[in-house]
Amino acid sequence: MQLLQDYEGYVADREQALAGLRRYENEATALEIEQSNDAVHFLYINEIAEAASRFLNGFPGTCLYAAKANPHPALLRLLWAAGIRHFEVASIREIEELSAAFPLAQLYFMHPVKSRQAINRAYALGVRHFAFDSLEELRKIKQETGHAEDLSLMLRLSVSQVGAAYPLDNKFGATLMEAPLLLTHARQIAEKVGVTFHVGSQCLEIEAYVNAIYNIANMLDGCGVEIDMLDVGGGFPVSYPDMEPAPLQDYFDAIQKTLVECGFDTLEIFCEPGRAMVAAGGAVAVRVELRRGQSLYLNDGTYGALFDAGQLGWAYPVELYRSGRLNAPSESTQFQLYGPTCDSIDKMKDHLALPDDVCEGDWIIFRHLGAYGYAMQTRFNGFYSETMVGIESPAEFA
Ligand SMILES: *Cc1c(COP(=O)(O)O)cnc(C)c1O
Q: Which end of the chain, N or C, is surrounded by fewer C-beta atoms within 10 Å?
């Protein structure tokens, strides 16, 4: 694998990408100097660049970053510096922000249900790739692009979510039975036609991708429709305490092998990672504002960056940072964690094991939260954090 640091111009581009972002050697220094009242988001600069080059070098096709996973401007610029030029988007705001930041970026409007204004505006801004999963949506795209002849239309199929820790089924996607008719209609209006799917987020079964591709090949064989593009979506997993996935390269190899077996290796191939691109490249530090017995009240919660931890009970690698205090060895016990808002559902689903002497002023760092943390914050009750800082060399946590 070519090291990103070797790319000509990468270091200069990275420095420009990070202009305006406060940067620290490690988390401890950041927390000491920031003295933030809000949660603190960390961006692990090298980890983000390495994840980007893993996808760019390893995936057998074009890699679209799913912007919703973390749309922070510094992170987007870092991905751009690392070579990401294609983005998966779902809303007109995402499109406007990305095309303003990166006029040369290629945007793929992959939400299967779009407003008419959004389609119209996206086309005006240069978007040519649109997803659909119904005849009604196809008609909207045709009308709102003024019967454009340069469209690339991607049929979103619903596929098995077996193996996904976070299934995304039952909402979008045509069935394999409906696909031939939809593809035939798309062929009549599009310059290029493709198929896309999403196996569900944090997909721990490589076979989910393999099976989806085989099912598409069978469907196409049966109906004689040809496609130009195949998009295997997102869903690539990262490591969390309860989930240890196979290496990313195993996913890429299995996908590549299947594409060849199905005769798809001549198509344009895409993937759309969100989580796997940025999860390990971020973390959030939250402060204990009060301890009452085994209950800890924090400055961030389920309406903030801890939605998945709170509502779904997902586990993250956790570390304690205590200002001016030693991390003295201490038994760990179970704590109930509460978020800062006045809502009673703003609490963690499961208890969290922490050193028994945890107290007010300590910071709990949730790692591998670069995806769907910062991005999920609401402004409810005035609790949220725009404090994002770059970390050069993260502490090696045990
Ligand atoms: C959310 C989403 C992604 C990214 O999914 P991850 O599981 O984070 O990789 C990709 N494509 C579409 C259409 C999505 O909705």
A: C
Q: What are the pLDDT tens digits along the chain (398 aa)?
A: 455 555 667 788 888 889 889 999 999 999 999 999 999 999 999 999 999 999 999 999 999 999 999 999 999 999 999 999 999 999 999 999 999 999 999 999 999 999 999 999 999 999 999 999 999 999 999 999 999 999 999 999 999 888 888 888 778 999 999 999 999 999 999 999 999 999 999 999 999 999 999 999 999 999 989 999 999 999 999 999 889 999 999 999 999 999 999 999 999 999 999 999 999 999 999 999 999 999 999 999 999 999 998 888 888 999 999 977 767 778 899 999 999 999 999 999 989 999 999 999 999 999 999 999 999 999 999 999 999 999 987 766 53
- Which secondary structure element, helix H or strand E, spans residue 132, and what is its range? strand 129-132
CA of 347 to the centre of ligand 1 (A): 26
The domain in which residue 327 lies consists of 279-391
Q: Is 164's C-beta closer than 6 angstroms to any atom of ligand 1? A: no
Task: Specify whether 243 is located in the same domain as 101.
Answer: yes
DSSP run (H or E) holding 368: none
Q: Are residues 257 and 318 both part of a single domain? A: no
302 contacts 345 by C-beta, under 8 angstroms? yes
Dmax (CA) of the chain: 69
| Sign of the CA dihedral with 151 first, then 114, 163, and 352 last | positive
Within-domain flag for 233: yes
Distance 172 CA to ligand 1 centre (A): 12
Most informative mutation of 62, 195, 271, 272 for ligand 1 (most atoms within 8 A of CB): 272
Cα(311)–Cα(345) distance, integer angstroms: 8
What's the CA-to-centroid distance between 198 and ligand 1, angstroms? 7
- Asked whether residue 163 falls in the same domain as residue 107, the answer is yes
